[in-house]
Amino acid sequence: MSLPSTSVLGALRSFHVVATRLSFTKAAADLCVTQGAVSQQIRLLEKHLGLKLFIRSARTLTLTGKGEALHNVMTRVFLDTEAILEELQTPDTPLQISCSPSFALHWLTPRLADFNARYPHIPVRLVAEFQDLDSDELARGRIDLAIRYDPKKYNDVAAEVLLDEFIIPVSTPSLAEKSQPLEIRNVHLLHDNEPWTGAPEYCEWNDWITENTDDYENTIGGSQFNLSSLALGSALKNQGMAMGRMALVYDDILSGRLVFPFGKPIPARARYVLICRDAADKRVNVFTNWLRTECAHFRRQRDNMLKSIPTEPQVLKNR
């Protein structure tokens, strides 16, 4: 089959805009041409096809049955064309994402399969690291996007709050049952010793105990790890009770591997921040929009879980 002539292709474009807007005047404005030029294009196309595409009246413009059929096809054609052009313009190099290790392991990695399925033309290279970032580090070009967990203000880079966080003690069901009646002074505490660079020692457990007990007199101690995921791994081995961040423990709570022995979540000092090197990069825009959607969906799931935690006061014995 021979290809349509250039004039017919141009007329099909004009037809699609007119059929979408159902107005010659609005279509002309969208196409940046005169209304007369648009009308001429439609007449050319109708003559070429030997049929009427529109029903014209003094005040309205409607599609004929065959016009509607052609419009449906052209809509798919232009959407597919736009998608392939965007794909062809997307760089082939992997999108370099630097991410806080525990968030990468427990939250981001399990969701990347969805991104890969939706956008197979955008390969991702995920690196787990937690060094501080500034404009100089980003300018070296090694990182396209970064996700950090901290309470800091970023003034010299493009950054946005991606997700807030809540912290809550977690343990295995067997540890919680074995320790009844549960007393904080008898629990071996597991710590991420530096949730972010410069974080005070024991800060997460200290914040939670301060918020939930009035007269805690014990010295906070226990085992320290350089990653929250290691503390959670230790908790899963019945070695103590860890301070869980909801983004990291949500799946284990759902599966029943971990429980909330004391309940009582509190807002964390830190939050997850998305840092961008070049907002004009198409790959960055696609991934960022997908990530925002995933975070919004998770936030609703997490908040529903938090609401389901019993609200009646629980005695937290500590002496």
From TrEMBL:
One family name in Pfam for this protein: LysR_substrate
Domain HTH lysR-type, chain residue ranges per copy: 12-64
Family: Belongs to the LysR transcriptional regulatory family.
Identification of the protein by name: LysR family transcriptional regulator
Record key words, sorted: DNA-binding, Transcription, Transcription regulation
PANTHER family to which the protein is assigned, alphabetical: HTH-TYPE TRANSCRIPTIONAL ACTIVATOR TTDR-RELATED, HTH-TYPE TRANSCRIPTIONAL REGULATOR
Organism the protein comes from: Gluconobacter cerinus
Keyword hit for Metal-binding: no
GO MF terms, alphabetically ordered: DNA binding; DNA-binding transcription factor activity
Entry-linked Gene3D superfamilies: Periplasmic binding protein-like II (3.40.190.10), Winged helix-like DNA-binding domain superfamily/Winged helix DNA-binding domain (1.10.10.10)
The organism's place on the tree of life at top rank: Bacteria
Stored InterPro entries: LysR-type_TF_proteobact-type, LysR_HTH_N, LysR_subst-bd, WH-like_DNA-bd_sf, WH_DNA-bd_sf
The keyword Transcription belongs to this UniProt entry's keyword annotation: yes
